[in-house]
Amino acid sequence: MITRIEIDGFKSFLDFQLDIPPFLLIVGRNGSGKSNLFDALRFMSDVVRNGVQDALLGQPRGVARDLFHRDETGQVADEMRIVIGMIAASPYGPLALRCGVRFRWENGAPTARYAAVWASELENVGWVDRWRTGDAVRETLRSSRDAYLADGNPDYVPFTAGPDSLLLSLLRGESATWPPLALDPAVMRTPAQAPDRRPLQTSGENLAAVLHRLLGEDRLWRVGVDLAAIIPGVSEIVSVFDSRRQEADFDVVFREGARTPPPLLSDGTLRAIAILTALHDKDSGSTLAIEEVENGLHPSRIGELVRRLRREVSDPSSDVFDPLTRQVLLTTHSPVLLSEFRTDFSGSVVFFDPVLRVSQGKAPSTVTVARPVAESGEKGTYVSPRQVRRVLSYVQQDTL
């Protein structure tokens, strides 16, 4: 579970810090930096899994130079830093980790100054204080760290360390879940090779295989129940296995008894099935990130999907909280979702806003600023739901 993100010099972020709760909805108009935050998570995951050079060369949204912040004059930042805090399951219990990379642009190319993971000293853990069981969680994390170090394990490991490093192994497991779903309805409509123990891939290419696996784990019915609550008329999902071809497929059964195969399902229905499949798959890892969660769904059904997602996440304000709970990160530019939270936002909704920053001696820069959505608070530190709805509604009307 991700607990904190610090970004400086990456795309639209300068001196950016954000504590991440188990459930987080990021609201903002297009161009506000929502996608850039997920790009940072995707980039860090690439660095951990594939190495610094491969991650820099394999960016889908531009060359390496475009990862660095650019001010209003076109000048590109010389340095870029990303640090991510997390809680990972370890043999010693829930272990608080931090990983980070720092790059400097030198001689026409980015140079890594450091890329490492370390056991957190539990200094920047303000997120714990907002949990009702914060003291107990803090003590659990401290005990796990002490036990880890008592075994002679290093507290700092570079990404170039060998495959036997426990910290790197834990980090690889966590970071594999950071890339957001980028679901492709075309590939979700095709059968998938089975058996397949992999979690749902970001494109959804193995959706049919994961549904078949969930059938064997007695979890497919959960996906069907949730889908029926979101898509009117749905009765259940039926997994279909072709033993000769070793391929999995599925049908959606509607109440009148009609079985509809994936090629005849709408993009929105396929997206909903994929999201619910990832949610109920225990092998999908700790973090489920979904960009523009409302895409393909009727506005009246978006709230129900979010309710189903929130239900699977442990509430940090409750008396019993699991620090290894499933985490859900969503982005949206739709004002509809705010009504789902009514007046109880509890730090779970953040508004991203592009702001022109002017500093003495420096060129102006448009940067992403994150403010919690709340009904009240210290002036300038929050934004009200009414203000957010007004901004998003104005943007939507302006694009019609």
Could you explain how this protein is built, in words?
This is ATPase. Residues 1-44 form the RecF/RecN/SMC N-terminal domain. Residues 248-339 form the ATPase AAA-type core domain. It is a single chain. With 400 residues, the chain is α+β, with helices and mostly antiparallel strands. It is 30% helix and 26% strand. It has helices spanning 34-50, 52-57, 126-129, 134-150, 166-175, 185-188, 207-216, 220-230, 267-280, 299-311, 385-398; strands at 2-8, 16-19, 23-27, 79-90, 93-106, 109-119, 156-158, 192-193, 234-242, 247-254, 259-260, 287-290, 327-332, 349-357, 365-372. The strands form 3 sheets. Strands 2-1-4-5-6-7 form a 6-stranded antiparallel sheet. A hairpin with a 4-residue loop joins strand 10 and strand 11. The longest helix has 17 residues, at 34-50. The two termini are 38 Å apart.
Largest sheet: 6 strands, antiparallel
Spans where pLDDT lies below 50 across 5 or more residues: none
Oligomer: single chain
Beta-strand percent range: 25-35%
Domain ATPase AAA-type core: 248-339
GO molecular function: ATP binding; ATP hydrolysis activity
InterPro entries: ATPase_AAA_core (IPR003959), P-loop_NTPase (IPR027417), RecF-like (IPR014555), RecF/RecN/SMC_N (IPR003395)
Protein name: ATPase
Short description:
The protein has 400 residues and is of the alpha+beta class. The protein has helices at residues 34-50, 52-57, 126-129, 134-150, 166-175, 185-188, 207-216, 220-230, 267-280, 299-311, 385-398, and strands spanning 2-8, 16-19, 23-27, 79-90, 93-106, 109-119, 156-158, 192-193, 234-242, 247-254, 259-260, 287-290, 327-332, 349-357, 365-372.
